[in-house]
Predict the structure.
Amino acid sequence: MSEEKVLRKVIITAAITGQGATPVMSEFLPLTPKQIADDAVKAYQAGAAIVHIHARKDETGEPTPSLPIFREIVTDIKKRCNVVINITTGGAGTPDERIKVVPEFKPEMATLNCGSLSGTSIQVFEKMKDKIKYDWEKKFLAREEFIFENTYKMMRVYSQACRENNTRPEIEIWDIGQITAVKFMIDRNYIDTPVHLQFVMGALSGMPATHGTLVFVYERAREVLGNFSWSVAAVGKDQIPIGAAALGMGGHVRVGLEDSLYAGYGRLARSSAEQVERIVKIAEQMSIQPAAPDDVRQMLGLKGIDKVNY
């Protein structure tokens, strides 16, 4: 019997630590630069071709825009593997601080968020307040006035920084109306086409992580934007089910501890690699092969690891 043909390759991204989860939520959440780099390398070894990087303070795990800490992380990862590093521009800090990673490191990829959202983790604070260790963590989880700011001016400035440094923007779509923001940027030549989209599903103020929503947002994006490549990142318990649906629809997938702290019902993931392994197994059952980093560089037209500044 002949071997079944592999139909296509899927890009698996591992979002390592983010800034939404805090130390009280999981003992396995990477916090120090070494822990973040270690988790990224393990995710690569498990089948991730891209790792998405946020930075945290070494002593407390507090999210930070610190360029020296970012440099320590990305340099360590690059020394150990050739994974594509996608640095966040949506993490901690002011709008001016958040974009500095692009001209500083000239990464192959960086995120570009397309709209503002309000958020809170008060529900987590109410449940776990007696276990919280750090003052920053208590204030972070208890706040009710947080706005994840992504104005149209920021979109223009951030997209310009990406173009000037030959960094491929990964366009983050948190809600369906943000597709129009992408069209706005294309029409004004802020970003090049075809774009690479990330549908982020399940955030408190964003679009829900349901199969129906995924189909709708995909079809809406096709109607408005035409041709594009795309991936899905679903928050919490929906990470793997929505990722599997994306595979069936021809998309790519993001997993990792930024989006979910679990690897199966009621069991904390010990690393992002565990989640990568789960989605790899699902892909293989569908005759889909995990793409290697160099595959991704060709698929997305990236400039190459030799042209970054770290």
User: Anything to note?
Assistant: The first strand starts at residue 8 and ends at 10. Residues 211-225 form the longest helix (15 residues). The radius of gyration is 18 Å. The chain has a mean pLDDT of 96.
